[in-house]
Amino acid sequence: MSLLLTVYESPDWNRLIDVYDLPVAEHTELSSVGGKTKALKPAQKLSSIAKILSTNSAENHLWLGVVQAEYFLSKAVEDGSSIAEASEQWQKITQDLLALKRENRQRINLFNLNQALAHPYEFNSTLGLKKTVTHRTIASKKIEFSLLAACQYVSQKEEIKELNSVLHAYTISFNSDEAPILDIEKAIQQNNKITKKLSETENERNAILLQLQHAQEEIEDNYKSLAVAQETIDQLITQNEIDTERLKAETQAVHTREVKKLEAKFLEQTYDLEKKLSELHVSLEKAEHSMLAHEKQYNKELSKQENFLRKMKAQAAYAEYNCNLLQQEITDLRNSTAWKSTAPVRALGRLVKNPKTSNIKLLQDAALLLTSEYFDVEWYLKNYADVSESKINPAEHYLLFGASEGRLPGPLFDGNWYLQQYPDVADTKTNPLLHFIMFGQAEGRRSSPVLLTNDIQNNVEQ
């Protein structure tokens, strides 16, 4: 395999590949090129070339296109770059390339890139290419004047001339002449063209300067006119500002007068509204006081009626309860034959028999409870179903069992709280409701925490 590449940045390298229609290889293909001749198009670094040598077979040869100092420096002249910097760059590349060549004499061939373009037949024959090209096809596009300048520069630098000669010695030459191909007559023609173009450019420059002078004069005239116009505008702006300030002052004065009128009217309306509002507040307070008085009177009357109703209900319940007991007793007696036959004797015995004192006391206390608003028979029987089922008098049950069991006689009296609130009553072992009816109410004691709270609220309101 033959692989063509270069380490010099030169447009002639791309021209060489295009003119000879060389197939371009990628780095990934280098190990499988076979016997074909290919080229790497971008200029390579020496480190890349060393890597290619280490990864490819010894049978593969590298053809490195080299650029003489004159052609390399002429490119710098064309680009307007520093010829001194370009000279240092060429020397560094060339010295490193020659060192690599010495290490790999059998695998690296150096050829003159510019001679390959100038002598296509010799280049074709050396590399075994079959591309037909002519001198016309690859005619150099080099500017002879820049090449002439580069040749003059090289002739003055002994180190460059010496390195150029060493490079030529290691390079396969397609022409025995080492010096670059230079057409002096063409260079003179190019110089004449450049001189003529410079003259034409100078004439154009003078014409442009004349036009610029006329334009400058017009600008100055326009500037003067602009200054006059600006002065007029400034005067108009000043007058406009004066008129605006005067209009603002007049508007502000009118606005102030209108605001004062509206404020006076608003204050008058506000005073009337506040007066009416005050009168309404007084009327509302009177109405509220009257309503509260009526409400208190109504509540008092309602409380009296409720107390009276509870007393009547208690008495009715007591009477109904006794009536039911007597009715049941009568029914049982009447249905009993033995009772019927001995009825006169038992009736006589009941008349002459002295009842027990304890029973009389119990009946008296029960009667006292039943006539009190604080003992609610219906409530007691409803809340304590076992009492209702036992058929016992609810008042007697409360006296005998209910109070000691912590039961309440009704919603208006809390016996448990009463005994806790008044320990002196608890010490007497007296039934709490019986004590309240007989003594506590007259002493100003309270029947329950709920009623105590209500009394406190009523006192606060009064």
UniProtKB/TrEMBL annotation:
Coiled coil: 184-218
Entry annotated with the keyword Coiled coil: yes
Keywords from the UniProt entry: Coiled coil
Protein name, per record: Uncharacterized protein
